[in-house]
Amino acid sequence: MSGPWSVALVVALIAFSLRAVGPVLLGGKQLPAALSGLIELLPSALLAAFVVTQVFVSGSAFAIDARAVGVAAAAVAIYARLPLPVTLLLAASATALVRFI
Amino acid sequence: MATRRRASLYPLGIAVALDGVAFGVLSHAVGFGPIVAIVFSALAISGSAQFAALSIVGTGGGAVSAGVTALLLNARAVPMGLSVAPLLRGRLWWRALTAQLVFDESWALAQVAPGRWNRRLLFAGGLTVYAGWVAGTALGSLGATPLGDPKRFGIDAVFPAFFLALLAPFLASRRGALAGFAGAAIALALTPVAPRGLPILAASLGCLVGIRR
What we know:
Radius of gyration of chain A: 19 Å
Largest sheet of chain B: 2 strands, antiparallel
Number of strands of chain A: 2
Strand content of chain A: under 5%
Oligomer: heterodimer
Distance between the termini of chain B: 33 Å
Strand content of chain B: under 5%
Helix content of chain A: over 70%
Number of helices of chain B: 12
Structural class of chain B: mainly alpha
Strand order of the largest sheet of chain B: 1-2
Radius of gyration of chain B: 18 Å
Distance between the termini of chain A: 47 Å
Number of helices of chain A: 5
């Protein structure tokens, strides 16, 4: 098997297995009480981590660039309770504008 | 809530597709043919791990290091999968298959209340991401880049804005805010020192602040 194919299949197999673990083991069952208390807070922890790493990190270094402006615009839109599609459009436009200038 | 959120599927699909185009273009640049690139996207559907795999191949690495990196980058899928496991019923193969629709974006979009996910929204979001990613990869790898570099349009700001919007309601509760702060702090603190993927995985431990004493 040539290089690109083996890379693609190995990565795909790993992605598939990791996604399948939880639902294969516990699919359709109620989570144990101790676990569900933590699961409730998992999105807060993970989403916050997604946000900061996607705004302030470039490679493995910190960076403040046009993305930060876009997400700041989004934060204002979220605070003003604008619909999500509008918020996303504002984030993209603000970032694009900064890059264009 | 679920109906209102369905409107976000369109901009999400567009953003993912443009990201897919970028992946397709880059895959061509490191010597992946269109068929490998499209199959790669259709089977792995993992932007972070796939981009990482390209940069590994581009610097002379192979399947082993791409696999190790994918393991780290996708490890967060395990706690995420556990969180929606109660919704994914049926036979084992069906559960394994539907679990493949749990992406960061669909998982975030489908959480309608703390700890509660809407299955239809999860599937709709997952299929949107899937279609956008594969279609974008196909376009990019075949050299069709009608819009040029997606960064010009600020696409890379769309994803953090999306996650921020879905995070915001949870910051209103003290426990949610604490977990969010902990997750962000852990991820940032580990970024300069840990291999890629580990900061996000470790950030999921932020939910431990919720343990009641």
